[in-house]
Specification:
The structure holds two protein chains of two kinds. Chain A has helices spanning about 5-15, 20-40, 45-70, 75-80, 85, 90-125, 130-155, 160-175, 180, 185-195, 210-230. By secondary structure, chain A is mainly α. In chain A, helix 6 runs antiparallel to helix 7 (about 130-155) and helix 7 runs parallel beside helix 11. By secondary structure, chain B is α/β, with parallel strands linked by helices. Chain B is built from ten helices and 14 strands. Classes of the chains: A mainly alpha, B alpha/beta.
């Protein structure tokens, strides 16, 4: 199911492109904000939770997920270089699964690790806030990677659609329309984080069992469907 | 001995028919797939390479379907037309990755790089390569698993004459070693130099098949049309029609020119300046009026 050569090509493609700069810029911004907040306000559990929930989990994690998820396959399909993978005796679902693993790993490294560091800077993990949001970022990384990887196999405009989902749906509608909150990776991840953190600092609109079921279901369904998409991907050539 | 069979195969994209009821067999040796741009050559090659399902019909390799049959890819090497590669890798890394995807390793990769004479630049990033170098690295990636079938889509595009000769040499060797080599081209001379067997595709249809000499004769023996302007059109017309290489002449008064139909292309091109000089006539314009490849091919289809 996992092909180390496909993995190597994928992470080198992800980190070798200019887009990869965002992978470094966003975490750097988070750490900067964390340091500034700590310097001006001192350690405060509620503020720490607000920064991690409002910026890290609501904005940074989905954006990193978009870059890593769509970037793991979209550009190869766009420019046609995926030919070199498809012409090999490698099962196409194996290609998708491997790319998913790489996308998850990259998203986790660039979102969960900085989230934890920012939490430590903000309040030294008081009331488990840093750990709770790190867990949320880890969980969200898996679902976002699967969703955006699928998007990369479906549309040439995967990045734009992914950004719209991440910024408009998750951030805007998610806070306005209660129904949208149920269908939000962010809320699912928060439900898991809620279990970890102290009383009242992390809240989710979704119950834990619903959240887990949706997280697992979405991840598996998206990965399966991406595999199907790649199996029926047709290269039309340049004519 | 590996044979690709294309059996009553069509492929359409929406309303556009790219390949229309084509039946052909590609056997060992070098075969040229000739046709103008947009004729459906790439679509055919994509179906033979397993990147595209036929809309109807069957494309098989020794009886096995190629579409969605990963195990067949062990026998196929593909050199796509598109330039896109993993530009951030070095040539060596790229060929090695292709070898690994076939379950092979560094030894095979190195051998393939040596075959295309790219060892000298193997540690440079592909992004820095010229078009010919890219083509050769693509070639190495397709050869790395010693496939019995090699499919090349417009492999000579962008190559300089020396690289072209090298590649032709390599393909010729592979063909005589019993491998099935198929390459597409829209340039007759390329196909003529390399392929002993030609398949011609025009507008999605299989227009001709066979020995290149036969097809070449069909192409060169067709009537050629020329538009000629001179200092004395009628005197020139009279002198030209006396020679058997000219089949007909029309004096086009509106254009102020002669429309000449020549049957013996070689002889006519020698005759025209000689006649003009002997008669003291100055040639002002001599232009072939149907030399476009499309007209050559449409003539072939009609033949």
């Amino acid at each position: 199911m996992y092909n180390p050569t496909v993995a190597r090509l994928t992470y080198r493609a992800l980190l070798g492109r200019r887009r990869a700069l965002i992978l470094f810029a966003l975490p750097a911004l988070l750490l900067l904000i964390a340091a500034a907040v700590r310097a001006f306000n001192g350690a405060d559990d509620q503020i720490a939770a607000d920064v991690l929930g409002g910026f890290a989990l609501a904005t940074m994690v989905p954006l990193i997920g978009v870059i890593a998820g769509t970037g793991a396959i979209g550009p190869e399909i766009d420019d046609g270089s995926i030919v070199y993978l498809l012409s090999k005796p490698v099962k196409r679902p194996t290609i998708i699964f491997t790319k998913l693993i790489v996308a998850i790993a990259v998203t986790m490294v660039f979102s969960a690790v900085p989230t934890f560091l920012a939490g430590m800077i903000l309040n030294g993990n008081g009331q488990q806030v840093a750990v709770a949001y790190t867990v949320a970022a880890l969980v969200a990384s898996i679902a976002y990677s699967a969703l955006f990887l699928l998007l990369g196999t479906v549309s040439r405009h995967a990045v734009v659609i992914g950004l719209v989902y991440a910024l408009v749906w998750e951030a805007l509608f998610g806070s306005l329309i209660s129904g949208a909150k149920t269908l939000s990776v962010q809320q699912w991840a928060l439900a898991v984080a809620q279990k970890v953190s102290g009383e009242g600092l992390v809240t989710s609109e979704v119950g834990l069992s619903t959240a887990l079921a949706l997280l697992i279901g979405v991840t598996i369904a998206a990965t399966w469907y991406a595999g199907q998409r790649l199996r029926s991907l047709k290269l039309a050539g340049e004519e | 001995m590996t044979t690709i069979n294309i059996d009553h195969t069509s492929r359409w994209f929406g309303n556009v028919v790219a390949v229309n009821d084509v039946t052909m067999t590609i056997g060992p040796g070098v075969t040229g797939l000739l046709g103008p741009n947009g004729a459906g050559k790439s679509t055919l090659i994509n179906m033979m390479g397993g990147f595209l399902a036929p809309s109807t019909g069957a494309v098989t390799l020794d009886g096995q379907p190629i579409w969605r049959n990963e195990s067949v890819y062990r026998q196929i090497g593909v050199v796509p037309e598109r330039e896109a590669m993993y530009d951030f890798l070095t040539g060596r890394e790229f060929v090695l990755a292709n070898a690994e995807l076939h379950g092979l390793g560094a030894k095979e990769a190195q051998h393939a790089l040596a075959t295309v004479e790219m060892e000298y630049a193997q540690d440079r990033k592909i992004a820095t390569y010229s078009k010919g170098m890219r083509q050769r690295v693509k070639m190495a990636s397709a050869l790395v698993h010693q496939p019995s079938v090699l499919l090349l889509d417009e492999p000579f595009n962008g190559m300089d004459p020396r690289q072209r000769m090298q590649l032709m040499d390599l393909l010729r060797r592979m063909g005589s070693a019993g491998r099935t080599v198929l390459f597409s081209s829209h340039i007759l001379e390329e196909v003529e130099q390399l392929a002993s067997h030609i398949e011609v595709i025009v507008a999605g249809r299989h227009a001709a098949s066979g020995d290149f000499r036969k097809i070449r004769r069909l192409m060169t023996d067709r009537p050629h049309r020329y538009l000629v302007r001179s200092s004395d059109d009628r005197a020139l017309a009279a002198a030209l029609i006396a020679d058997p290489s000219t089949a007909g002449i029309e004096v086009d008064l509106a254009e102020g020119a002669l429309r000449v139909q020549a049957v013996d292309f070689g002889r006519f091109t020698e005759l025209l300046p000689q006649v003009a000089r002997a008669q003291g006539i100055r040639l002002l314009t001599v232009s072939p009026s149907d030399e476009s490849l499309e007209s050559v091919f449409s003539y072939l289809v009609a033949a």
